[in-house]
Amino acid sequence: MKKLLRNISFVAVLLTGLSACTEADPEYTDFPSKDVDFIYSVAPNSDGEVEYALDYYVVSTIQFTNTSAKDGSVTWDFGDGVTSNEENPQHKYAKAGNYNVKLTVEGVGSRTYPLMIYDIAPVLSIKEQSSDIITINDVTVDFDIFLPNPENKRVKYDWIFPEGTMTEDGQEITTFSGYADENGNVEYPGKLKFRNIGSQRITIQTTFDIDGENRRLEDSYVNVQVGADKEYPTLYYAVLDGNINAMKIIPADQLPEGTKNLPFDMGVSSGSMPFNLVYYDDVEGNGWIYILDAGKQYTYINDEAGTNGDGRINVMSVDGSSVNVMVTNVGQTAFNDPFYGCIDGDNMLYSDRNTGLRTTSLSARGETEKSNYFVQNDQLGYYSRTIAYGSITTGIYKDSKGMYWWGKCYAGQCILRFKSTDIVTDYASASEPYEPVLASTTLKAFTLDEDRNALYVWRTKTNGGFYKYDIPAESATVTRDQFTFSEEMDADPINTTADEGVYVTQFAVDKESGNVYFGFNSVDKDYTTGLKYFDYANNKIVDVPAVTDKILGIVVNNNKSKLF
């Protein structure tokens, strides 16, 4: 209990006159002392047991005990308009909130402590499941409700189930009403199973003390993560102003009849501007999702003090159960926030806004940005030729031959290529190591599918949209008009800065099908916002109707699993 220590001393003022003397009324002043003091705790119930001793709920009776060193008549003010003159009173609060409880001992002083009273709310959880992994149609789930109710008031629970919820015998169930009686016995809907893949959200609406107060409590819900009946890759994507979501990549002809493939809410925040997600398997076989969040301040700012940085890289386990900060740039130079990244051996290679590419060990946790550069703009022969000072990064990719592909959208629009041996200390005496790809093309997201010799690019401004090119040989290049597929579709720049629009920030390739997934935020009436993919086999852009969120970073975990 955090106590605000205040003590009171009595000040007497003696006034003298010609014929009489008068003693003034007592005046109380706070000073640190134990002359006046008290403690409080949750009172035992009728059986002498203390329930919910660590929290103070609206349903709890609070015992206040006067521990003052000096005696006198007492007055308690519980901060909710109720007072008492008992020596050691009990009190129950009707509403949640912060209260200042004051004990006054006449002729001595007073003391005040803060007391936070919490409202009660049910907690819905999974009690038992018939298999370690919950999969569609056959694995059953039992639920449990926890609600602080020391007086065993009667409670009504109205359950709301998502589409595709079934009883153990396969009957569709959409709602259920159950009660908790005076003895604490709760009625449950029984064992349930699910027809659809994804986060199945079950909600309970609670009415407390139905024979008296009849008060509606805050709703409670649980997301039941329901996996597929077979193993498939998993797509992860960052919802703008939302959470990291996941979705199984299942061919339509392999989805069981009547089953929908819906997204999983991983319960982990995407951050402010999650431009990239990066997947990595560690040496122990654990999968991790790296969330590169450029922060709210990702466009140009005059950061003279070097304190406007608010970006970070967070690391999430594939099931969302573990989240850590890898590296943070909060409170440092704004342009050093992490924007785009890729795996480079045991390191994360990631870009700042417009200076270069940094490197940090993939095992790093809780670090502060140290600007450990792998390469900067002026350490390549492209500098002061193809690109200039302030050249803004749009993405980074390392191919299987050790070639780095570095996208630029300002002060040199193109994709640069280089190997580690091309990094120099004197750009003026160095030549361009390779011919730039898509010279004078303003682009954002790009990626390679080396197995299918395909380069995918999101172009902006003139003829903006999704483009496919052949991957050029090291000794060759490709120009903006040499595409093999295009779909012009205007994406939302999100901001009004001419050269720093967001548009589409990342592509993710499903290795098995060759399909290319991306989030599309529409400003075009012919296209809707949400998850889309390039259907490699049929050469067309396809909507994923189940996902209509605004999406930025996106990545595929090609390791197959039923869940994550």
TrEMBL record:
Domain PKD span(s) in chain numbering: 73-105
Highest taxon of source: Bacteria
Signal peptide coordinates: 1-24
Keywords recorded for this protein, A-Z: Signal
InterPro entries given in the database record: Ig-like_fold, PKD/Chitinase_dom, PKD_dom, PKD_dom_sf
Record carries keyword Nucleotidyltransferase: no
Name used for this protein in its record: PKD domain-containing protein
Organism, scientific name: Candidatus Limisoma faecipullorum
